[in-house]
Amino acid sequence: MALVGCSRTAPPADGAPQAAASATPAAATSSPQALKHPCTLLTASDAEAVPGVGAKLKRNSDSSCILETPNPLGPVIEVKIEKLPSTWDGGEMMMKFDREAKKVEGIGDGAYTFGGGTIIFKKGAAEVSVITSAYQGRKSKFDAAKYLAERLVAAM
Questions:
Q1: Is residue 22 part of a domain?
Q2: For residues 78 and 51, which has the higher predicted lDDT (pLDDT)?
Q3: 79: domain range?
Q4: Of 11, 114, 126, 130, which one has the greatest count of Cβ atoms within 10 A?
Q5: Residues 6+ apart with CB under 8 A from 24
Q6: Is residue 85 part of a domain?
Q7: Is residue 70 part of a domain?
Q8: CA-wise closest residue to 119 among 90, 139, 97
């Protein structure tokens, strides 16, 4: 079954050859415009692997992508990629206020989880959030977030 959606194999929207896109200087990746949209980093298979068959990637904003199912009530997962804030602390403040919050090893830099499974991590100049607060599916919220976070890190 073919799904129309965002994938990492899509050509650049401006029609520029992909080789030219890879020649962009590394310094340019620190600007907000250079941050990749999460819908371009996940595939249709990634979308279906968590919420299930029929799930699609949907651009929610300039920095956000949701995985939505045919059921309008969910489960829904939101993925955001935003400029790394100057206040980034790897979840230290969150862990002071939420006893359930904890570090997550092996995903980006300074990854932490809270709220039963939401994962936030740093990758280069980006703060990446996999928000599972509205997710109710066959995987736990943490396992769903971890699956997607691992795919995002590999694609970034």
A1: no
A2: 78
A3: 29-155
A4: 130
A5: 34
A6: yes
A7: yes
A8: 90
What is the domain-level CATH number for residue 119?
3.40.1000
Q: Which residue has the tokens 């939420």?
A: 98
CA-CA distance, 98 to 38, in Å (whole number)? Answer: 27
CB of 49 closer than 8 Å to CB of 69: no
CB 112 within 8 A of CB 95: yes
**Tens digit of each residue's pLDDT (9 = 90 or more) over 23-52:** 333 333 344 458 999 999 999 999 888 888
Could you give the 3-state DSSP secondary structure of residue 64?
Answer: strand
Which of helix, strand or coil describes residue 142? helix
Q: How far is Cα 72 from Cα 85, in angstroms, rounded to an integer?
A: 33
40/21 Cα distance (integer angstroms): 14
Residue given tokens 């769903």 in the structure block: 144
Rounded to two decimals, what is the model's pTM?
0.74
Q: Can you tell me the mean pLDDT for 97-117?
A: 90
Tell me which amino acid residue 130 is: V
Cβ contact 141:117 at 8 Å: yes
Distance CA 19, CA 56 (A): 28
Tokens 């299930």, residue located: 52
* Structure-token pair, residue 51: 């919420």
Tell me the C-alpha distance between 145 and 18, whole Å.
Answer: 29
The answer as to whether 19 is a domain residue is no
